[in-house]
Amino acid sequence: MWNEVIEVLETDYVMIAVPVFLIALLLEWRWAKGQAHKVYDSGDLRVSLGVMILTVAIDVAPKILALMLMFVCYQASPFKGTISTAWYWWITLFFLDDFIYYWHHRLNHEVRILWAGHVPHHNSEHYHFGTALRQGVCERVLKYFFWMPLPLLGFHPLMVVSMLSFSLIYQFWLHTQSVSKLSPILEFIFNTPSHHRVHHASNPCYLDRNHGGTLIIWDRLFGSFAEESEKHPPRYGVTRPLSKQTVVAAAFEEYSQLAADMGRAKSLRDKLAYLFMAPGWSHDGQDKRSKTLRTQIL
């Protein structure tokens, strides 16, 4: 099993794509210099790159453990050997992976303990390719468990991890203000920069919308879609800004805020509710969950 795990780790398409990411970032930075509004901030970019390095370091152990578990699931699958690398199985895997990604991503926004791991990707007040590199740090600890059903269904772990990588690479280009809306057909089916700008916005009408990875159809099907509107230019960041612009604050501040909220609660029920209710829920204060804030502006 160990040799197979190493083989998967060596086939890391995201790491292979990193030079392309950096070249794209430099090109976008040059484009941004000619814009009327400020796109890049040097301090914010340093934090984003620092969070990226921290995420890569923290991701090593969970990824190895997850791969080992994937191989255990694959070996135990009653469908092992049934699924090949034929094109139709890759297409099937694409839709299954994107469906899982949607629910994983949506739960990261709707369950606060998961949000604490995902929020580094959102707490920048700027939106550009550098933001794409600012991934959720502790999100990696639990992320891979969402994909365990796929090797149980008979998909080889190398196929699963490859599809995860392709999805992440696709999502990189979504993090830009340099691309306006695409054709209506593409905007209807695929996740695009316009749709993802909505996802990163802190405007009440945009909160917790557009969770899709490659496709936007899941958001349309499950009621979490919002269209980018010229009447409501996106304001990037989170509803409770960082206390300071540092890598440590960006990566871990939400955990300290969560612990403080749990400390205020008297009952065990309320303490647990802070872990599993949506961000913004309070046992003794104003309800600031996204669904509540959206209701207030209607």
Key phrases:
298 residues; mainly alpha; 15 helices; 60% helix
Structural commentary:
This protein has 15 helices and no strands. It is globular. The protein is mainly alpha-helical. The mean pLDDT is 94. Helix 5 (112-118) runs antiparallel to helix 13 and helix 13 packs antiparallel against helix 14. Helix content is 60%, strand content 0%. The termini are far apart.
Give Rg in angstroms: 20 Å
Count of helices? Answer: 15
Which descriptor suits the 3D outline? globular
Mean pLDDT: 94
Uncertain segments: none
Number of strands: 0
First-last Cα distance: 55 Å
Question: What composes the largest sheet?
Answer: none
Order of helices and strands: HHHHHHHHHHHHHHH
Structural class: mainly alpha
Strand composition percent: under 5%
Helix content: 55-70%
Helices, strands, pairings?
Elements (H helix, E strand, L loop, with lengths): L1 H9 L2 H20 L9 H35 L10 H24 L1 H7 L10 H4 L6 H5 L5 H4 L4 H16 L11 H6 L3 H8 L16 H5 L25 H18 L3 H9 L13 H8 L1
Question: What is the compact description of this entry?
Answer:
60% of the residues lie in helices and 0% in strands. It has 298 residues and is mainly alpha-helical.
